């Protein structure tokens, strides 16, 4: 277990509170990441205002970030400790019919199909003050350390500047995709 700081949303409409949290070791298929850089998206604000119907509180928000793999769970093969990674708000299992379709990006493991308030095994890797803290989109980048399913992470080039690529998991592809694919700019 690692103890670190995280911004915890204890209830809808309440301000974030910086707390010391415990982050459990990754289980099979999971990766514990030291978050080095993160950014804020409007979706995080929607969470805090209670606009997301499947969200559970208390929760550690955040879904844009970049970090370094601290440790891996059993069976993780695509990355190792020390690798730089970006959390993906839309996972990519690489096996479902949507991941295998070149015209789709909505994995069957995404939040559109499966709530991501807890890890896939329906438990949390976060505790604070003896209470279970929920995950947000399996990512929770508002923590210094987080545990994420392997298929919700992308290994990136070792030379990538984390403070610049932290928006690549949501903000950049959303904006770029809207401009290129929808608006045809």
Instruction: Give me the count of strands.
Output: 9
H/E series:
EEEHEEEEEEHH
Stretches with pLDDT under 50, minimum 5 residues: none
Counted by DSSP, the helix tally is 3
The level 1 CATH classification is Alpha Beta
Secondary structural class? alpha+beta
Give the count of structural domains. 1
| Rg on CA atoms, Å | 16 Å
Mind telling me which CATH architecture this is? Alpha-Beta Complex
Give the termini separation. 48 Å
CATH homologous superfamily (4th level) name = Medium-chain alcohol dehydrogenases, catalytic domain
Oligomeric state of the chains in view: single chain
Largest sheet: 5 strands, antiparallel
Question: Could you describe the 3D structure shown?
Answer:
The protein has 185 residues and is α+β, with helices and mostly antiparallel strands. It has one domain: Quinone Oxidoreductase, Chain A, domain 1. It has helices at residues 42-49, 162-165, 171-182, and strands at 2-8, 17-23, 30-39, 64-72, 84-87, 126-128, 131-133, 145-149, 153-155. The strands form two sheets. It has a five-stranded antiparallel β-sheet with strand order 8-3-4-5-9. The protein has a four-stranded antiparallel β-sheet with strand order 1-2-6-7, with no helix packed on it. It is globular, with a radius of gyration of 16 Å. The mean pLDDT is 92. It holds the Pfam family ADH_N. It comes from Zapornia atra. Residues 28-157 form the Alcohol dehydrogenase-like N-terminal domain. One of its GO terms (molecular function) is all-trans-retinol dehydrogenase (NAD+) activity.
